[in-house]
């Protein structure tokens, strides 16, 4: 599914993304090792048994990346010029191996770009939610989105 152009985003719109992902031990191990995050809380099962969680945690930056990947399919695939930044990133609950993550996106606001004629900035709020309906990641993101080409009409909502 192609992403939406700047004009097609409506403030207050909410996307309940259909794609879900069960996070595996391999995901966590590979991501942690690739990013050189060698924290025993992510990698060492015996160490993690002695923590407040009693088990290894999935690397939170993997979850943030997963949020970006899941939401892209319905919102920005092929119509973004790039992320301008993430802010207010929170991880209110931990993610464990075997948790299934879904994502909800809300369009907070948007404005035309001040420096580019072909684009605007859309401000999103993304929430990752586990199978227990707990929010495990909550963040705001600004995306630089292409404006509709002159020959393409705005899609009906």
UniProtKB/TrEMBL annotation:
Which residue numbers delimit the MaoC-like domain?
12-114
Protein source organism: Amycolatopsis acididurans
Protein family membership = Belongs to the enoyl-CoA hydratase/isomerase family.
Database matches in Gene3D superfamilies: Hotdog Thioesterase
Domain of life, per UniProt, equals Bacteria
Under the heading Pfam families, the entry gives: MaoC_dehydratas (PF01575)
Lineage, highest ranks first: Bacteria, Bacillati, Actinomycetota, Actinomycetes, Pseudonocardiales
Q: Which InterPro entries match?
A: HotDog_dom_sf (IPR029069), MaoC-like_dom (IPR002539), MCH/BMMD (IPR052342)
Its recorded name reads MaoC family dehydratase
